[in-house]
């Protein structure tokens, strides 16, 4: 359906027959990241005008799931993994390993296309940063965030997420 496809076209703008045809003909890859790490990343990038991480989380929670920015909306609401059968789910923090496998499966050369990743350093930094940011939150905010992202935490293996408790 290239005549109707533009970069801004949302899947929901197609009828059911078109959606089924497209989803059946594409390789579907979903990139996922711990929701708490997504929040930290958005805060560090200056998304929103909050002076502290705690007030940023307050703003996120006040927006609710339906009005949330796509930057921090739960992945389950954005990507519909229960409805769309993704061929690959790539976890942030394991990008080099998983993207190499994905490129190999697609028959593409892996070494020349992949940038250098420092997955171990990234995981270590985010672990420390997550601990610091999590300590800024009230018990109520921690519970509310866990509830806000409950479906992401159930759908994906974020076992080490601070929100999993």
Automatic annotation (TrEMBL):
Major localization listed first in the record, in broad terms: Golgi
EC supergroup of this enzyme: transferase
EC number: 2.8.2.-
Keywords: Carbohydrate metabolism, Glycoprotein, Golgi apparatus, Membrane, Signal-anchor, Transferase, Transmembrane, Transmembrane helix
Family matches, as InterPro entries: Carb_sulfotrans_8-10, Sulfotransferase
Keyword Transmembrane helix: yes
Membrane-topology annotation of the record: Single-pass type II membrane protein
Biological process, per Gene Ontology: carbohydrate biosynthetic process; dermatan sulfate proteoglycan metabolic process
Gene name tied to this protein: Chst9_1
Domain of life: Eukaryota
Subcellular location: Golgi apparatus membrane
GO CC, alphabetical: Golgi membrane
Name of the molecule in the record: Carbohydrate sulfotransferase
Family stated for the protein in its record: Belongs to the sulfotransferase 2 family.
